């Protein structure tokens, strides 16, 4: 076997300009009062990887440019479209008016496991991720079309938000693209 690690210049990634012109996946991410700037940066990087349409940063969620965001985003704040909104509930209402299917990633009594959620390829989606301690705001839960949950088998109640975004965006992307 002749295996070697591929060099960055061989990966043929899009430039920032090419990324901005590329057709995006019908996925928007909303961060609801996310505290950690490192988590925000990681979300940008994941959204870049999957050609996510846009990120909404709401409430106390930090905004670029910031050194701590840049440290984990590695330039993705320049490629991924984003917007800051003060009120997450108003942001969700606006996106509902724009005909997005709103999904909260949260543990609720009638939620669906991510593995059992199959998106309609004709719709566009918003994924709402909440605060690291308190989760998605109650006001948002009242407005969403559905709630999805990542199955967990250990002792902790939740995953780190950056990890959760990676799992859910990848899962939704691959179901929209390949199923």
Q: What does it look like?
A:
The protein is of the alpha/beta class and 179 residues long. It has one domain (16-178): 3-Layer(aba) Sandwich (Alpha/beta knot), CATH 3.40.1280. 35% of the residues lie in helices and 21% in strands. It contains seven helices and seven strands, in the order H-E-H-E-H-H-E-H-E-E-E-H-E-H. The protein has a seven-stranded parallel sheet, with helices on both faces. Helix 2 (37-49) runs parallel beside helix 3 (67-73) and helix 2 packs parallel to helix 7 (161-178). The protein is globular and about 50 Å long. It starts with 15 loop residues before the first helix and ends with a helix. The model has no long low-confidence stretch (mean pLDDT 96).
Features:
alpha/beta, single chain, 179 residues, 7 helices, seven-stranded parallel beta sheet, Alpha/beta knot
Helix content: 25-40%
CATH-assigned homologous superfamily: SPOUT methyltransferase, trefoil knot domain
Radius of gyration computed on alpha carbons: 16 Å
**Strand-and-helix sequence, N→C?**
HEHEHHEHEEEHEH
- CATH secondary-structure class: Alpha Beta
Question: What is the strand arrangement across the widest sheet?
Answer: 3-2-1-6-4-7-5
